[in-house]
């Protein structure tokens, strides 16, 4: 992990349970897909609550990326693969299709590098509270939809198009 990533990481904020339910419900409705074909990757996993919800929603391959080794995970119970690795260093290409989940884990500078890192992947990027959406507007990613989920908006992008 680079010093930039350490300096630019945001404090963990867990995805509220009701918000997670809305995200999965809306995503499944708008983008029908076979959950067995996708790895759910939580970028900035924090405690792993979003991984538990992804597993409960039917994803069998769940991966949490977290740069803080002092984080206490609750998701070990659901066979999530927790890795203390940078979002810029993770080998996403090992998965055929991915759903990348972000709840605003890092700064605009790291977001720019992350967007370049995921170029060429197939799947979706779900970005809750997309405060750095401008970094994605001028990238290879094109927003498919923007959901109004109450407290936080949620932007969904297709990867690989």
Walk me through this protein's architecture.
The structure is a single chain. The protein is α/β, with parallel strands linked by helices and about 160 residues long. It has one domain (about 5, about 20-160): 3-Layer(aba) Sandwich (Rossmann fold). It is built from five helices and seven strands, in the order ααβαβββαβαββ. The protein has a seven-stranded mixed β-sheet with strand order 3-2-1-4-5-7-6. α2 (about 15-30) packs across α3 (about 50-55). The radius of gyration is 14 Å and the shape is globular. The model has no long low-confidence stretch (mean pLDDT about 85).
Number of strands: 7
> What is the share of helical residues?
25-40%
Sheet with the most strands?
7 strands, mixed
Count of domains? 1
Q: Termini, distance in Å?
A: 29 Å
Number of helices: 5
> CATH homologous superfamily, by name?
Vaccinia Virus protein VP39
Computed CA radius of gyration, to the nearest angstrom: 14 Å
**N-to-C SSE series?**
HHEHEEEHEHEE
Helix/strand layout:
Blueprint: H1 3-8, H2 17-30, E1 39-43, H3 49-56, E2 61-65, E3 81-83, E4 98-102, H4 108-117, E5 123-128, H5 133-137, E6 142-148, E7 153-159
Parallel strand pairs: 1-2, 1-4, 2-3, 4-5
Antiparallel strand pairs: 5-7, 6-7
């Amino acid at each position: 992990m680079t010093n930039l990533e350490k300096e630019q990481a945001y404090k963990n904020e867990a995805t509220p349970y009701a918000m997670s339910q809305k995200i999965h419900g809306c995503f499944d409705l708008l983008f029908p897909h076979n959950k067995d074909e996708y790895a759910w990757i939580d970028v900035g996993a924090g405690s792993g609550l979003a991984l538990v919800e992804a597993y409960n929603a039917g994803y069998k391959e769940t991966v949490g990326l977290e740069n803080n080794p002092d984080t206490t995970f609750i998701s070990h119970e659901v066979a999530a693969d927790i890795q203390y690795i940078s979002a810029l260093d993770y080998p996403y290409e090992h998965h055929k299709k991915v759903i990348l989940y972000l709840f605003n884990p890092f700064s605009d500078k790291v977001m720019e590098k992350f967007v370049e890192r995921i170029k060429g992947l197939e799947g979706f990027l779900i970005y809750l509270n997309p405060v750095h959406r401008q970094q994605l507007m001028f990238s290879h990613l094109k927003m498919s939809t923007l959901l109004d989920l109450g407290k936080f908006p949620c932007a969904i992008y297709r990867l690989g198009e």
